Amino acid sequence: GPGQAAMYAGLQELGVANGEDLKETLTNCTEPLKAIEQFQTENGVLLPSLQSALPFLDLHGTPRLEFHQSVFDELREKLLERVSAIALEGKVEERYKKLEDLLEKSFSLVKMPSIQPVVMCVMKHLPKVPEKKLKLVMADKDLYKACAVEVKRQIWQDNQALFGDEVSPLLKQYILEKENILFSNDISVLHNFFSPSPKTRRQGEVVQKLTQMIGKNVKLYDMVLQFLRTLFLRTRNVHYCTLRAELLMSLHDLEISEICTVDPCHKFTWCLDACIREKFVDNKRARELQGFLDGVKKGQEQVLGDLSMILCDPFAINTLALSTIRHLQDLVGQDTLPRESPDLLLLLRMLSLGQGAWDMIDSQVFKEPKMEAELITKFLPMLMSFVVDDQTFNVDQKLPSEEKGPIPYPSTIPEAFTKFLQENRIACEIGLYYILHITKQRNKNAFLRLLPALVETFSDLAFSDIFLHLLTGNLTLLGDEFSLEEFCTSLFDGFFLTACSRKENVHRHVLRLLLHLHHKVAPAKLESLQKALEPTKQSGEAVKELYNQLTEKLELRKPSPAEATETPSMELPLPTVPTPASR
C-alpha cells in the first residue's frame, strides 16, 4: 500500500531493490521459489559466515524479517555513533566533506522511518546544510518537525516569518504567566511578584526554550530582540522588557560569549542584575552603572534605546524605586538635601531613562530624558517632610502630655503633592513606592493622609496591576483596620470604587483583597461592598469567577435563620472569630 511505498521511498534511486522490484521479478518468472531464493541472495546481508547460519535461524522459527531488523538496528546504532565521531575528528574541512558526501548519498532515504534518524544526525552535525536540502526540509511539515534544533536554526535565520511563528506562542505564554502571578489569589506581603530571584526567574520554561532555540546564533538573538521591541511598542506591556533582560542573562549564565560580547548592554545588565538580586543599588555598583551611562559615545546613542528597555523592566524599576526611598530616609537623618546626593541623582537618572523607554523607541530619538529640576528641588523635599512629620508625631506621642492634649496627626496634604502625582511620571512612581513603604510599616495615619492623592495619577499608575498587586499584599498588614468604618470608607469608596466600573483590573484586585480579608470587614460594610462589586453584563469571566468565590465564602459565614432567632436578646453577639478555614 501507499504506507509501504513511503517506507521504502528513495531506495530505487540508490540502486537498491525494493518490494516493487520483487513483485516485478515474480510476475515475470517461471519458477517463483527459485526467483525468491535468488532475490534473497542478491539482496540479503552479504556476509559469507551468515550463509550457513540463516537456515539454522529458520529452524528456530525466527522470521527473516526479524533477523534483518535486528541486524539493521545494530548497524544503524553503529552508523549514528560513527557520524557523531566523524563530526569531531580530523581537519575541519575534511570532516565536513565526509558528512556532506554522506548526506548526498543518504538524503533520498530521508522519508524511510528506519533511515531517517541517520540522515537527521548527519544534518545536525553540519554547520552549513546545503541550501537545497534545507528547502526540501522546510517544504515538508513532518521532516521539519523531525529536525534537530541545530538544523532548524539554519532554516530560521533566513526565514523570519517562520521563526516568528515558533516564537510567538512562547511570548504569549510568558505574558500570561506574568499576569497570573499579579492576579494570583494568594495575597501575601512575603511572597509577591518581585520575590523570585533573577536566577530563579531565568529557569522559567519560556526563557529556557528561547535560549535553546537561539543557541549561539547572533542573528536569531537579534530577531528575538526585534520581536520584543515591536511587541513592547505595540502593547506598551513592560513584561517584554523583563524578558529582554532575562534572555540576555540566561545566555550569560551559559557563557555564550558569541552573543554576550556583541550585545552592548551585556555588562550594564549584568551589573543591574546583581542590584535586582539585592533589591538595592549600593554605592559601588552605582558608580559602575554610571560609568556605563557616561561612556555612551557619540554616534552610538542608539544603545540608549536598549539600555532604557533594560531599565524599564519592572524588576529594575522596583529596585531603583526601593533604593530611592531608602536614600530619602537616610538624607532626613543626615540633614542633607536631595540635590546634594549624587547617588540619589543617579537613581533618578536611571528611573527616568527606564520610564522613557517607550517614547525613546517610538520616536527613535536616542538621548537621555531631561530631568525636571522641580522633582529634585520641590517634590523629594516634600516626601522628606512627610518622613519628618511621622518622626515628630511619634516623638510627641511618647512625651508626657501637658494641658495641651494630644497633638493630632497632620491630615491634609500639600496640593503640590497631588499635582506632582498627576503630572510627573517619575514623581508619581516614587510617590507610589513611598505609599507602599508606609503601608508596609503599618503606618495607618500616613496611609490615610496620602490615599486621596491616588485617585488621579499620571496615566492612572495607581490603578496599574503591579502597584495594586503590591498594595493589596501590604494591606494585609493593616488587616485589623478593616473592621473600622472610617478606614474602609477611605480605602474602598474613596479609592478602589472610583475606578472599578471603568477598569476591570481594579475590580479584580478589590475582589482578591476581599476574598483574603472579608472576615475582618464589618458586616454592614461587607454587605454594601458586595452590592457595589456585583459584576455587570460587560464584566469578564475572571471578575465573575472571583465574585462567585466571594459570595460562596460569605454564604458560609452567615448564621442559619434558625440560629439567628434562637439567640436570647440579653446576650451580646460575639464577634466572628476567623477560623483558619475561612481565610
SSE map:
Layout lengths: L1 H6 L11 H9 L4 H12 L4 H12 L4 H23 L5 H15 L9 H9 L6 H9 L1 H6 L2 H8 L3 H23 L15 H4 L3 H10 L3 H18 L3 H15 L3 H4 L5 H13 L4 H12 L8 H10 L1 H21 L7 H14 L1 H7 L9 H26 L16 H9 L1 H16 L3 H7 L14 H11 L9 H9 L10 H14 L5 H10 L8 H17 L3 H6 L17
Helix pairs in contact: 5-7, 6-7, 11-13, 11-14, 13-15, 14-15, 15-17, 15-19, 17-18, 17-20, 19-21, 19-22, 20-21, 20-23, 20-25, 23-25, 24-25, 25-27, 27-29, 29-31
Protein name: NELFB factor
Organism: Aramus guarauna (Limpkin)
InterPro entries: COBRA1
Number of strands: 0
Strand fraction equals under 5%
Kindly report how far apart the N and C termini lie.
65 Å
How many independent structural domains? Answer: 4
Shape: elongated
Major β-sheet profile: none
Summarize the structure.
By secondary structure, this protein is mainly α.
Highlighted features:
583 residues; 4 domains; 66% helix; 0% strand; elongated
Explain the overall architecture:
It comes from Aramus guarauna. This is NELFB factor. One of its GO terms (cellular component) is NELF complex. Pfam families: COBRA1. The chain has about 575 residues and is mainly alpha-helical. The longest helix has 26 residues, at about 375-400. The two termini are about 65 Å apart. It folds into four domains: about 45-125, no CATH class; about 160-370, no CATH class; about 375-395 and about 410-455, no CATH class; about 480-550, no CATH class. It has helices spanning about 1-5, 20-25, 30-45, 50-60, 65-85, 90-105, 115-125, 130-140, 140-145, 150-155, 160-180, 200, 205-215, 220-235, 240-255, 255-260, 265-280, 285-295, 305-310, 315-335, 340-355, 355-365, 375-400, 415-425, 425-440, 445-450, 465-475, 485-495, 505-515, 525-530, 540-555, 560-565.
